[in-house]
Amino acid sequence: MRDLMELGERRFGRVNWLGLYTLAAREVTRFWVVWTQTLLAPLVTAGLFLLIFNIAIGPRRGDVMGVPFLTFLAPGILMMTVIQNAFANTSSSVVIAKVQGNIVDTLMPPLSAFEQVLGYLAGGVARGLLVALAIGVALAVVLGIVPQHPFFALTFIVLGGAFMGALGLVAGVYANKFDQMAAITNFIVTPLAFLSGTFYSVEALPPVLNRITHANPVFYLIDGLRFGLIGVSDSSPWLGLGVCAAATTAVCVLAWRMFATGYRLKA
């Protein structure tokens, strides 16, 4: 009996580093084995956005906030791509596991709710960083954009990946089928990304829309990255850091609570 009790003890300390590493490695491998879909496709999509805007209005559009329109647009496209991919990585992982009935493979191992959330987030943030790296290299080669403030650029990319990765976990836990996941993406995630100053300066908006935009955490992610890359922004980057850190913490706590209670995960 004593031997059985010893086998049931958590013998790897406060953090199950091996289990956490295994879950994180699985999440990274999920998108890495299909890199043409998860890394190359976002790069092509971002390039098409820039090309279409350049053809449609670029030559006739004057400077925005003192920089050429394409230079102003590029950071918004980059961040929008990062957050969409981070969200897709975590949400699809949870939803597919629930639909296929193998979510138990993640819930049964000796991993705490914190370790499970951290493992999933590692995959989302890693995918966001790799997408950002690919697009950043392309921007440097094509447009000559070199980060003016690398610390802010990297910090906001990581915060963007973590925020939307955690939001993807919340959405994945809540959704029980792909239709529900598609609805969350179409009616919540896409509006958050598009109505956040990606394609325009919020100073051009009417006062009411300006205030609404400032309540959107994604606005601060895009604005902060724009400051990090080209040195201009609509608001203080330090304010953006505070807002994004607070929003990311809140969503991560919500995701942790869902895993800790087994909400929509356990029968």
Kindly summarize this structure in a few lines:
With 267 residues, the protein is mostly helical.
Question: Biggest β-sheet: count, sense, barrel?
Answer: none
Total number of helices? 11
Order of helices and strands: HHHHHHHHHHH
Please mark out the parts with pLDDT under 50 across 5 or more consecutive residues, or reply none: 1-8
Average pLDDT works out at 90
Strand share of the residues?
under 5%
End-to-end Cα distance, whole Å, is: 30 Å
Structural account:
The chain is mainly α. Helices cover 75% and strands 0% of the residues. It has eleven helices and no strands. The protein has helices at residues 2-7, 17-32, 35-56, 69-100, 104-107, 113-142, 150-174, 178-194, 207-214, 217-230, 237-261. The longest helix is centred in the first third of the chain and has 32 residues, at 69-100. The radius of gyration is 20 Å and the shape is elongated. The relative contact order is 0.14. The model is unreliable at 1-8 (pLDDT under 50).
